[in-house]
Every structure is written in C-alpha cells, then in structure tokens.
Design a protein that fits this description.
The chain has one domain: TIM Barrel. It is built from 10 helices and 12 strands. It has 308 residues and is an alpha/beta fold. The strands form 3 sheets. It has an 8-stranded parallel β-barrel, surrounded by 5 helices. A two-stranded antiparallel sheet has the order 5-6. The chain has a two-stranded antiparallel sheet with strand order 10-11. α1 links the parallel β1 and β2.
C-alpha cells in the first residue's frame, strides 16, 4: 500500500464578486503569484457560466452574491493565465459544473491545461444547482448527475487511450483520438464534491481520486466518510492510501470579533486525524480588499510551517 498523501493547503481565490474594483478582475492573477511566493500548495477557483435571479435554490446557506451583474470569471481560462506566471503552484476547480460542458471539448481543454502547466491541474467537480444556468446553456437540468458521470468517464477514455472508444446513453464515439494526453499519468485527478451518498461513493470509487465534503461538514462526519471510502476502494481493488480528502479550516473569530487566522488553523489536527490531506481556506474570509492579500499570504505561509 502506498504512503498516505502529505498534508497540503489550498486557498479559494475571488475570481468572482466585488472583491476587485470594477475593471480590475485581471488582478486575480497576482494572487496566484502571492500564493506561490508564500509556499501555499494550491489555489482553487469557483465556477458559474451564467447566473439567474433565483439564487434561493442554493441549498448551502445564503448565496453570497444574490444581486444581478456580479462577475464570475471562467475558471479554466483563469487557471491558464495563472499557470503562465507560476511554476510550482497547483490549481483546483472548486467546483466545475461538468454537465454544462461537452465531453470532447472538456477533455481537450483540460488536457491542454495540464500540458501547459506541466501537470499542475486538479478537477473538483459537481452537478450544479441552478436550473436557469442549464436553461441558458441549452442543457437539460434533469439527469445532470448521470450526464456528469458519463462525461467524466468519456474524458478518462480520451485521456488514456489512443484511439478511444466509448458508449453510454448520453455520450458515444468510436476510434477518436484526443491528443496531447495529460502529463499526469492516468489523466487529471478528479475530486467529487457533495454529501457522501451511495451515488457519490460509487462515483468516487469508479471515476475519482478525491472527495470534497459539503460545506460545514464536521471532522467526525469526514472521518466516517473516509472510512467508508477506504473500505470501498479496497473492495474495488484500489489502493485506499491514494484517496485524497479535502476539509475546511472554517474562519473562527478572535477576541476582536474579526476572523482569526491563527484560531482558524487550530482545526487542522482534528481534520488530519479525520483523514483530510488537503486543508481549504477562503481568502474572502480574511481579506476585505486586494490590499490586504499580501499580508494574509505572508502570515499564512509562516503559520503553516508548524502543521506540515
């Protein structure tokens, strides 16, 4: 059995919303430079193609930006720009809405990014939650979970076989070549997000490399999920030690009432004990403006040394 993955850290970057002044969203690339300079392992970026007015269907609390007109940069494009100005930093989509993409185009785009970044890409994936977004993309909202599974299975074939053949209810092709292949052996790692239902368990075991628990999941809840996943990995003939698991260092307020980075990081030992190897933090929880970002990254990089 392989050794367990080492502990690493990822920061969610605001490639969306009003964090940057109007007309300055391009400055998000500077945050990647700061993250790499501080020693952070990876950054992650969210995804929405378009946004409808009915944000009340967001099931994980209040949607942070319900007002219309809030910008959302396309994450794969942003990662391409960031990879061009960094050399070590890894990139993770958090979360790419896979059913909105077509399989061959997604496979090609992701493989291209992996080649250009020299193997520094991970895909965090999900099915999406807003019907209006699917309507605007002319993609059926119903059946999106099955569509995601089949798209990713098709991507796996296109990344690893030459030529590739694939047949399912929604995706089919024969003797198709998609080159270049990703640099990473077996293709780009895929992390499935969500509650660990039987369907999610099956997706991770068949097609995935990692699990991103739902927001607010407790350390005991994560530990239970990790135990179930490792058992299923072993039963499927996969090495349980290769399972990747993310967990949040949720913001904790200090004596001054503001989010305290030091107190937030105190959750790391319990997350590690639960089986987490990728600790997630949100830049927006600690920075209210771009001017605060350099100090945040310097402080974070210094503090993380004691947890590695």
């Amino acid at each position: 059995m392989s050794p367990a993955p080492p502990l690493s850290f990822t920061v969610n970057l605001p490639s969306f919303g009003p964090f940057f002044p109007k007309g300055e969203l391009h400055r998000v690339v500077d945050l990647a430079r700061m993250a790499e300079a501080s020693g952070i392992d990876s950054v992650n970026l969210p995804d929405h193609v378009v946004m409808g007015p009915n944000t009340h269907s967001y099931r994980w609390g209040s949607f942070p930006f319900p007002e219309p007109g809030v910008p959302w940069l396309e994450p794969l494009t942003v990662i391409a720009a960031m990879s061009a100005v960094t050399s070590r930093l890894r990139f993770l989509t958090w979360i790419l809405i896979v059913p909105l993409r077509t399989p061959a185009v997604l496979a090609k785009t992701v493989a291209t990014l992996d080649v250009l970044s020299r193997g520094r890409l991970d895909l965090g994936v999900g099915i999406g939650w807003q019907r209006e977004e699917f309507d605007a993309a002319a993609v059926p909202f119903e059946g999106r979970g099955k569509r995601m599974e089949e798209i990713l299975a098709a991507c796996r074939e296109l990344w690893t076989r030459e030529p590739a053949d694939f047949r399912s209810d929604t995706v089919s092709f024969e003797r198709i070549d998609c080159s270049p292949k990703p640099v990473q052996p077996g293709g780009v790692p895929i992390w499935f997000s969500g509650t660990l239902t039987e369907r999610t368990l099956d997706r991770i075991v068949r097609l995935g490399d990692g699990w991103i628990p739902i927001m607010g999941e407790s350390a005991p809840g994560i530990a239970d999920g990790v135990a179930r996943l490792r058992e299923r990995f072993k039963a499927a003939g996969r090495d349980p030690a290769r399972l990747r698991v993310a967990g949040p260092a949720d913001p904790v307020r200090g004596a001054d009432g503001k989010p305290s980075l030091a107190k937030s990081l105190e959750r790391i030992p319990s997350l590690r004990e639960a089986g987490v190897d990728l600790v997630h933090l949100s830049l927006l929880a600690f920075c209210r403006s771009p001017e605060e970002a350099p100090a945040f990254f310097q402080d974070l990089g210094r503090r993380l040394e004691e947890y590695r």
